[in-house]
Amino acid sequence: MKVAKFGGSSVADAEQLEKVARIIQSDKERRIIVVSAPGKRFANDVKVTDLLINLGESYKENRQYERELSLVVERFRSIVTDLNLSDQVIDKIETEIKNIFASSEAIYSKLEALKAVGEDTLAQILSEYLTSLGMNARYLNPKDAGLILSDQPGGAQILEESFDKIYRLREYDGILVIPGFFGYTSTGKLVTFSRGGSDITGSIIAAGVKANLYENFTDVDSVYCVNPTIVNNPKEIATLTYKEMRELSYAGFSVFHAEALIPAVRAEIPVCIKNTNNPNCPGTMIVAKKEIQTGENPVVGIASDEGFMSLYISKYLMNREIGFGRRLLHILEDEGISYEHTPSGIDDMSVIMRANQMDERKERNVIKRIKAELKPDQVHVARGLALIMIVGEGMQRQIGTAYIATKALKDANVNIEMINQGSSEVSLMFGIKEEAVNAAVKSLYQAFFE
Amino acid sequence: MKVAKFGGSSVADAEQLEKVARIIQSDKERRIIVVSAPGKRFANDVKVTDLLINLGESYKENRQYERELSLVVERFRSIVTDLNLSDQVIDKIETEIKNIFASSEAIYSKLEALKAVGEDTLAQILSEYLTSLGMNARYLNPKDAGLILSDQPGGAQILEESFDKIYRLREYDGILVIPGFFGYTSTGKLVTFSRGGSDITGSIIAAGVKANLYENFTDVDSVYCVNPTIVNNPKEIATLTYKEMRELSYAGFSVFHAEALIPAVRAEIPVCIKNTNNPNCPGTMIVAKKEIQTGENPVVGIASDEGFMSLYISKYLMNREIGFGRRLLHILEDEGISYEHTPSGIDDMSVIMRANQMDERKERNVIKRIKAELKPDQVHVARGLALIMIVGEGMQRQIGTAYIATKALKDANVNIEMINQGSSEVSLMFGIKEEAVNAAVKSLYQAFFE
Prior knowledge:
Two copies of one chain form a homodimer. Chain A is globular and about 75 Å long. In chain A, the strands form three sheets. In chain A, strands 3-4-2-1-7-9-10-8 form an eight-stranded mixed sheet, sandwiched between helices. A five-stranded antiparallel sheet of chain A has the order 12-11-13-15-14. A two-stranded antiparallel ribbon of chain A has the order 5-6. In chain A, helix 14 packs across helix 15. In chain A, strand 9 (about 270-275) and strand 10 form a beta hairpin. The longest helix of chain A has 17 residues, at about 65-80. Chain A is built from 15 helices and 15 strands. The first copy, chain A, folds into two domains: about 1-285, Acetylglutamate kinase-like (Carbamate kinase, 3-Layer(aba) Sandwich); about 300-450, VC0802-like, CATH 3.30.2130. By secondary structure, the first copy, chain A, is an alpha/beta fold. At the A-B interface, helix 10, helix 11, strand 11, helix 12 and strand 12 of A face helix 10, helix 11, strand 11, helix 12 and strand 12 of B. Chains A, B: InterPro entries: AceGlu_kinase-like_sf (IPR036393), ACT-like_dom_sf (IPR045865), ACT_Aspartokinase (IPR054352), ACT_dom (IPR002912), Asp/Glu/Uridylate_kinase (IPR001048), Asp_kin_monofn (IPR005260), Asp_kinase (IPR001341), AsparK_Bifunc_asparK/hSer_DH (IPR042199). Chains A, B: Pfam families: AA_kinase, ACT_9. Chains A, B: Its EC number is 2.7.2.4. Chains A, B: This is Aspartokinase. Chains A, B: It catalyses: L-aspartate + ATP = 4-phospho-L-aspartate + ADP.
């Protein structure tokens, strides 16, 4: 069986929901459907979840909220009307929201419950719509689906015990429509995942029911092998391993929340990114392992990201001092700074980190402590660093990838500030000056993909 | 003024000492001479310091030691005779050694004093010889030279207060001959440096008197840009910076003890490695800074060393865990393991270390703790790793060095396990399989030097 998750733009209006219905209908394996709340229909449109948050704000501050409430209701009414469904569900929304406000819960719990109304209502509308088309579909509340979450409003985590219950969803015949983004604590309180949490719900359910495939329907045909704002219509990626996706998603590539995939990754469920507006396009598969054909391009993607800095420390005979590196990292940790990489020479080491973590005050503290505690010969900071990540599991076995990459950078007249390859051999990383990123990425793309 | 240090092979016998005298005579700037004890005259010869250590052993174990004693004495007698010097000094040795044995000092202090007899005697012989040649030379005991050391027999450290006193050696006219390898504690007890400590004495005195040059006379014309056992008669290095020397000396290149140079490095005294047997050869200069001509080869040397291993750890979302790397390094530190490099991907990191530090028991402990404390998805160890270090300060400004290097490795069909560049940009490091070292180094040498 397949679990299919449809994102906000896929359920933004009746027209989109018709596409969704056709997609579900076209494959009997699509047995469990997870939906987001309706997203934007056009550039300046407002997502339903944001309408609900505005409504919550007004309520919280004891302002009039009739207008905000009607915006939510009307958004759903237009969907229901265009799909020729009864408007019972519309009345239900108003009562539900009023009940939330009337309840004796703490204000933050009320706002949590309010945020979830978008997904919950849309799931009910979709199941009703599918039924009206003659499909055997039913709405299932996350509580009945078995999603027991930790009591962390806005950042809840799935509890292990949930998975056994979720597995039993296999026993249902017909199609289940489950709202994403929220679940319930063991005491029955509604809690939401972090924003964009419908991806998390889909991934949890796919893992729980041990689906053959987790389909994530969005509005792009597939994942591109390089940032399309730097290279015009770049090649699409057919298959990515989890590892490759992680290495790419790290440097600027936002396939989707890495956390969202954890349950699917742990259960080794293959994931497919597909386009609701072009369902015949195969999309991009994300899998645990893949066969690499000899002769095949060892590189699957090139990611780049700016806004890094490096902290350089040198000290004669540094490498004789056991604990030097550890003590340096401890100083950064005390300041709550996480680092990306630590390239090192014999008597020096650099720490590469995101520059936004280190304001001037922190920089002063860190430098002061390093001087006092590590007594280095030199310590200084360089900002304006960009990282470029060349990713592909094939690189492990193929000789010459580093040669092709360094040649491309030389040809683009880019000076390499830093190279890091070696751990997994799934990625080859370069540090360069931010100004040089576009030239570097273009040249690397040509070298590996043209 | 110049401080000239002559190593064991340079003072092994009368013939060598005649060369030394000519070298001193040929340059009025050579005002302070530091000497080792006589070294080997031929392959199977025994160094005087080893003869003294054997003598000490016999004495310590209450064995007959006449034979060992006579070996020491005869060694010096032949030198004195061949140089036509009076043999007073010879009688002095015997009495001195007997006094050491007769003293009320603890046994370890007696052995310390005994070890120093070789340098001390040779310094006296040399000054006498220089005088016999009409030079204004005198022997100066390290105590009178001002070498006050910490009370760490066999591993003594110079005390800061020494340097002011040493500076006053400038006031002497004529040539001072000072024995290397030992000094005295503030309470007047003789203590030695680590083995090979004459280099340390020379470097300390050069720094103390603020010499224009510290000459280190050995039996090689200069430092080679690559290991001569891998590449036949490779190019010689004319000038090295301290930094370059450190990067090279690290991976197999033994110019000399890095520690020995510290005083000279801190005082920015240029060092010259020269050959006693070929003094007209300019040798290799080691300096604080050097001008890099544009178009000049940015690489000064290629070093390689085997016997490394890597410890690989991967964990999904590792980079979100602040302190992960620090905790890993702490585990190694607890086992007394020092590491060389830590290349990292987004969800994995490797620690590169010398394999001899990690026996099977330690490996089990480390892996056990990593699994228990860091809960990684994967952890494993790979041995048989070699590091190749391409060194040159010029690499910072020159684009394309990494390209030349990776091309050379590709041409030699060498797979790159790891690349590390980035901290100082004085070196570019590759990790490869040990079997591939010779092919890799030969190919890199061709690419950069031919």
